[in-house]
Design a protein that fits this description.
The complex is a heterodimer of chains A (about 625) and B (about 90).
Chain A (H helix, E strand, L loop, with lengths): L9 E7 L5 H9 L16 E5 L2 E8 L11 H10 L11 E7 L3 H12 L5 E6 L1 H6 L3 E2 L1 H8 L3 E3 L8 H11 L13 H15 E3 L5 H10 L4 H19 L2 H21 L4 H18 L2 H17 L1 H15 L7 H6 L4 H7 L6 H10 L9 H11 L4 E2 L4 E2 H28 L8 E3 L8 H35 L16 H13 L6 H7 L8 H13 L2 H5 L2 H8 L2 H13 L4 H11 L3 H29 L1
Parallel strand pairs in A: 1-3, 1-4, 4-5, 5-7
Antiparallel strand pairs in A: 2-3, 6-8, 9-10
Helix pairs in contact in A: 3-7, 5-7, 9-12, 9-18, 10-11, 11-19, 11-22, 12-19, 15-26, 16-18, 17-18, 17-24, 17-25, 18-25, 19-22, 20-21, 21-22, 25-27, 26-27
Chain B lengths: L7 E3 L8 E7 L7 H11 L6 E7 L7 E5 L2 E5 L1 H4 L2 E4 L2
Antiparallel strand pairs in B: 1-6, 2-3, 2-6, 3-4, 4-5
The chains are: A alpha/beta (about 625), B alpha+beta (about 90).
Chain lengths: ~625, ~90
């Protein structure tokens, strides 16, 4: 009789040129939420997931590549996997080759390269809706016959052709692997691919007119840079003004909860832990969620529309003046959200020295975790006024200035690093500009949801833990009899803070700030939470009701506040940034260089800011 | 620059609006030419395709944006100079 068959896991790789809609197809097939962006190099790592409805099939989403001779670390990931050179995993059992139907002549060349590997293959002819709209008609059966593999029309984002491609993938496992065949020279291969494309193209189509029209505006020599600069400016203004209402609501909610707890629970350490430790600490971070979501909405929309690559082109000249190229702009812009994806996205940069330089300066891009720090101090010290005839909020302007100084110093640092590292060769700048697409609301929404989860998880884990530890250290030992200062001054936190304060005194930092910098290493926004807890513990009962903003406004001088802002333009890096830098550069040398140079700059900047501000206010 | 029919030109020397049919991608021009030519080919540049300069950067007129076949590619003039086009 038949023995129960153990179902063998089938490993299928999704491969294609950048911008062919590969990650969107992967998401639709697996139900996973892989990041989808409309720029080359959005996928820099392999991701895998089980196909929905066929759990024995594992799909692997590989970074997009133009050929099987890799030019950059992300492309190498793909090639190593396909040739079984990867030490991390076995060679896949089959390939889904994703082709962009609107650019068949170019993408078919890669399909021919893939077919020569000998792995069983099925072709997903993607973006067929766009092709149809442009008037392109393709003889799908003819294409399948000429390629010798099944070809299925798909529109990944609209879930068209998904059942068919799943069926075809299911059959792949039973297909035999061929021996790899030799490829003709690249030039001949291009000719073969174009001839094949010509044979199966029934109607040529008119091209993507809207893309040409939008480019005439966005890449215009005068309007282009103005639009780019305005977009960035509006983005930072929006972070401030749009977030005001929801932030007030969260603030009110936390304060209400604290009041309710104070009324309900008896006075004692439990109440203090909940109110001063957890709610004051975690609450002061959670309040920044609306701002972070607004920032991400902008970045996600810019990414998925295809505008971000245009920005890289507009920025190339500026980047090349410090020895980098426009390609570095994309990792650097994502570093505004968080340095970690930014540092990983640097894999799309082919030249190792350019890549290293980009990694080293990525932390100077103001990440969203620094938003809470900036916002808190700005709200406490910068008046909420309009300048320039009421056009622009002063607080937003200061925020913009902080972001800008991060960028300026990043460029200066890049200039220095390139001098130190470079062999003087200019690296080529070559970037495909994808067609514009209306950003898919669903992807933006999913992206925001992911971000919210990550943020709240951090608030619930790292920050919560740090706050509980801080509360314990800040509450014990108890003060001696007849103490004159607040209790916390006699606690471990007070002792540590006062020791650290000798180092930071030249910057105008008091012991409360010095002690908040330490948990700030775990994640930058924790510094705000720590200030919340430290001040809540030092305050008397009346002051606890006051918000942290009010406490700082009355507790710090303006020079101290400005020095604190200057400090945070440069430092400190969070532990995760250091860890990812170690992983990406393969050792401790570069993360330590990064830590050292940023710490030094931070100290210097805060010192100068404090002294200059002091001189002016005297 | 005046464009005459049949004249061969380097793509990197052209102004927006100018272009032609690609007749060659040089591989022996500069130290990195062979490698860069391969990159250009992999990205989609090939003989017999039409290439037209669409835009140039407002800062120093470099890099440029080129329409090649059905694609749009941004690249610097130095690399674009490996591409020889014939006006028509």
């Amino acid at each position: 009789m038949n023995a129960p068959e153990t179902v063998k896991t089938l490993r299928i790789a999704l491969v294609g040129n950048p911008n062919c809609g590969k990650s969107a197809l992967f998401n639709t097939l697996t139900g996973l939420r892989q990041k989808v962006a409309n720029y080359p190099g959005a996928t820099v790592e392999r991701h895998s997931g089980r196909m929905t409805g066929a759990s024995h099939i594992e799909l692997i989403d590989l970074p997009g590549t133009y050929s099987l001779t890799p030019k950059s670390p992300d492309e190498a990931v793909t090639c190593d996997a396909l040739f079984g050179r990867s030490t991390l995993e076995a060679r896949p059992d089959g390939i889904v080759c994703v082709l962009d139907a609107t650019n068949l002549g170019q993408h078919l060349r890669f399909a021919l390269e893939l077919k020569a590997t000998g792995l069983p293959m099925v072709v997903a002819l993607n973006m067929t809706d766009l092709a149809r709209r442009e008037g392109i008609e393709i003889d799908v059966e003819g294409l399948a016959k000429r390629l010798g593999v099944p070809v299925i029309e798909t529109v990944a984002v609209r879930k068209t052709g998904i059942a068919e491609i799943k069926a075809a993938i299911g059959v792949l496992g039973t297909a035999a692997e061929h021996a790899p065949t030799d490829l003709p020279p690249l030039r001949q291969l291009q000719r073969d691919a174009r001839a094949m494309a010509r044979d199966v193209t029934l109607a040529e189509g008119s091209g993507h007119k809207i893309t040409r029209q939008l480019d005439a505006l966005f890449l215009h020599p005068v309007a282009g840079p103005i639009i780019l600069f305005s977009l960035l400016f509006v983005m930072f203004q929006a972070v401030f003004s749009w977030a005001e209402a929801p932030m007030d609501m969260i603030d009110g909610g936390v304060a209400g909860l604290q009041g309710w707890l104070a009324d309900t629970l008896p006075d004692g350490w439990v109440l203090s832990l909940l109110n001063d430790g957890i709610l004051a600490g975690v609450g002061s971070v959670v309040i920044f969620l609306p701002q972070i979501l607004i920032l991400f909405t902008f970045i996600l929309a810019l990414e998925s529309s295809g505008y971000l690559v245009r920005a890289a082109y507009l920025m190339d000249r500026l980047m090349s003046s410090v020895g980098l190229n426009g390609r570095a702009f994309i990792p650097l812009l994502s570093s505004f959200a968080c340095a970690i994806p930014g540092i990983m996205a640097a894999r799309t940069i082919a030249d190792p020295k350019d890549r290293l330089t980009t990694i080293l300066i990525a932390p100077l891009m103001t990440c969203s975790a620094r938003l809470p720090v900036y916002t808190l101090v700005i709200a406490a010290f910068i008046p909420n006024e309009s300048v320039w005839g009421g056009m622009v909020g002063l607080q937003g302007l200061v925020m913009f200035g902080l972001y800008l100084s991060g960028i300026v110093f990043a460029l200066l640092a890049a200039f220095v690093f390139k001098r130190l590292l470079s062999d003087g060769q200019r690296q080529p700048f070559l970037l495909e500009l994808p067609k514009y697409q209306v950003p898919h609301l669903r992807y933006i929404f999913v992206g925001l949801l992911e971000r919210t989860k990550v943020f709240l998880r951090r608030a619930g884990t790292i920050i919560l833990t740090a706050m509980i530890i801080l509360w314990v250290l800040g509450s014990y030992p108890l003060p001696p009899e007849g103490a004159t200062e607040p209790d916390i001054a006699y606690s471990y936190v007070g002792i540590i803070g006062k020791a650290l304060a000798t180092v930071f005194a030249p910057l105008g930092f008091n012991w409360e700030i010095s002690v908040a910098l330490v948990p700030g290493l775990a994640a930058r926004e924790v510094a705000v939470a720590a200030l919340g807890t430290v001040y809540a513990l030092s305050g008397d009962e009346d002051m606890v009701a006051d918000s942290l903003v009010g406490l700082l406004a009355s507790g710090w001088t303006l020079p101290t506040a400005l020095a604190f802002l200057a400090w945070y333009v440069f430092a400190p890096q969070c532990l995760s940034t250091i860890a990812v830098t170690k992983r990406e550069t393969g050792g401790w040398k570069w993360p330590l260089v990064m830590l050292g140079y940023l710490f030094g700059l931070a100290y210097l900047a805060a010192f100068l800011t404090y002294r200059i501000a002091l001189a002016f206010s005297a | 620059m005046l464009q005459q029919t049949g004249e061969t030109m380097r793509l990197g020397t052209l102004a927006p609006g100018q272009g032609g049919r690609i007749v060659a991608i040089e591989e022996a021009d500069t130290p990195n030419a062979a490698e860069n030519a391969e990159r250009l080919r992999e990205l989609g540049f090939a003989e017999e395709l039409d290439a037209t300069v669409l835009h140039q950067s407002p800062f120093g007129r470099d890099p440029i944006v080129v329409a090649v076949g059905s694609m749009t590619v941004a690249l610097r003039r130095a690399e674009a100079n490996l591409i020889v086009v014939k006006s028509q």
